[in-house]
Amino acid sequence: MSSTTPKTFHKDGYLIIPNALPPTTVQALLSEAHMMLENFSLADHPMTKFSTGEKSAHVGDDYFLTSGDKIRFFFEEDAFSSTGELIKPKSRAINKIGHYLHSLSPPFASLLDPALNPDLLGAGSTGGSVEAGRKESHPAAVARALGFRDPRVLQSMVICKQPEIGGAVPPHQDSTFLYTDPPSAVGFWYALEDATIENGCLSFLAGSHRWAPVKSRFVRDQNGSGTTFFDNEGARFPSKEGYGESLKDGDEEGEYKMGEVKAGSLVLIHGNLLHKSEKNLSQKGRIIYTFHVIEGEGKVYDKRNWLQPPSEGFTKLYRG
């Protein structure tokens, strides 16, 4: 990242970094995603769907709640008929794969540890400036540039916007789902295929992270019945200057900026930023890889969050 890009991120709440991954790495990650989509078994699968619609319909079964240290597959709602029959090939029916790819899948784990993939940085580059740019775009370098002291990696996912049935994702804030007190989440979103307006690219309400509070929390239902949303009683903004209720409120129905990106791009997304994507009605799908980083130093990760750390704790990106 250049010296100006953290300023752009803090101003807009998101940042697009083109060519963050070389083509060889993009292809390796895409091949791994396709392999998983082709080879997972339906024999004992509960056919769990991942809903991004109304809050009451959000996924919350045991298959989902115990996926924090596993690799599991969640279906698109529209991959099924009205009578519940799967009507798409399984590889074209999955909404997302999650949530521990950054540890259990060697190709995806290599993004966090260059020793696992020496070709990650600079592979296929034709000049020093490209190679240097990619080194600056490594997750550890990005986290340092953003001011993280003890970044912890969690909730890694392959997300598929399947042709014709890729569901719309309504405006949301990632800190609703991965809450720390005060909020600290940042999403690292890698395009493995071109994301366009036609196939449901992201769009962002620029600057909303500074005035849009984290009003609600997505948590495990204390009654043991899955997941639920409740009003956030903790901090609603990062504990930094330039955030907070005292700022002039923006318009949550304001104009969203489209985020079309080429394969290999990295999109950084502030945990308070309102962002969304539209349904994919085209014949062209798009596959991305994303994980989130939270601050482990001086922040409290709530025990009520739907995602809880594995026995060894969330993955450290670095310390200090």
Automatic annotation (TrEMBL):
Keywords (A to Z) from UniProt:
Iron, Metal-binding
**SUPFAM superfamilies cross-referenced by the UniProt entry:** Clavaminate synthase-like (SSF51197)
The question of whether Iron is a record keyword is answered with: yes
| InterPro entries from the UniProt entry | Phytyl_CoA_dOase-like (IPR008775)
Q: According to its UniProt record, which cofactors does this protein need?
A: Fe cation
Under the GO molecular function aspect, what terms does this record hold? metal ion binding
Q: Does the keyword Metal-binding apply?
A: yes
In this record, what's one Pfam family? PhyH
**Member of which family?**
Belongs to the PhyH family.
* Entry protein name: Phytanoyl-CoA dioxygenase
* Species annotation: Pseudomassariella vexata
